[in-house]
Amino acid sequence: MNQKNKKIIFGFTGLIASGKGTAAKYIEQKYSAANLRFSTMLRDVLSRLYLPQSRDMLVKLSETIRANFGEDSFAKVMAQDAKNNKKDIIVIEGIRRPADITYLSKLPNFVLVEIFADPKIRYERLIKRGENADDNTKTYEQFLEDHKRSTELSILDVLKSATEHIDNNGSTEDLHNQLDKLVKKYAGTN
């Protein structure tokens, strides 16, 4: 299915440190795509409140906002940002909840993409990147415990809706090749 000359929106989902951000950044750089992240909103609020950007704080803030303003509150923001963006290719990174996918799937040319990797590989990547304040000191057991939080458990339901699947157990080159094929398939870009 070639969607050439139409805005295409890739929604990336996957478990912790599966490579969603790496994949989004690659498409952003190679194809001049927009890169929209669910966590950006949360990080902005935590920064403004002078609170640490730990996984725990991100989860608490997400749960508070969703409980008070609706499960789809973040998806509404992402959908509006995608509509307003002038880029032909948009990546929405970090889709975690069924309410997100229900809302985002209404966007024209939306494709849900699962990015997956084995737990040990994801743990090593998490420690190496240190994106959150508590990542560098996390044990493998703590990493596995994080998968039991509401924000991670809900991803398992979202994964069932993915129409495309990217295996990120290999090299960076393998990942890039799969992403190039994905973009070519939907955006007609080489």
Q: β content, as a range?
A: 5-15%
Query: What would the CATH topology be?
Result: Rossmann fold
Alpha-beta content class? alpha/beta
Helix content: 40-55%
Q: Would you report the number of β strands?
A: 5
- Low-pLDDT runs: none
Main beta sheet: strand number and arrangement?
A: 5 strands, parallel
Our count of helices gives 9
CATH architecture annotation: 3-Layer(aba) Sandwich
User: What is the CATH class name?
Assistant: Alpha Beta
Please outline what is shown here:
The protein has 190 residues and is of the alpha/beta class.
Can you characterise this structure?
This protein has 190 residues and is α/β, with parallel strands linked by helices. It has one domain (8-187): Rossmann fold (3-Layer(aba) Sandwich). It has helices at 20-31, 38-48, 55-69, 73-84, 98-104, 119-129, 140-146, 150-159, 172-187; strands at residues 8-13, 34-37, 89-93, 110-116, 164-167. It has a five-stranded parallel β-sheet with strand order 2-3-1-4-5, with helices on both faces. The longest helix is centred in the last third of the chain and has 16 residues, at 172-187. The mean pLDDT is 90.
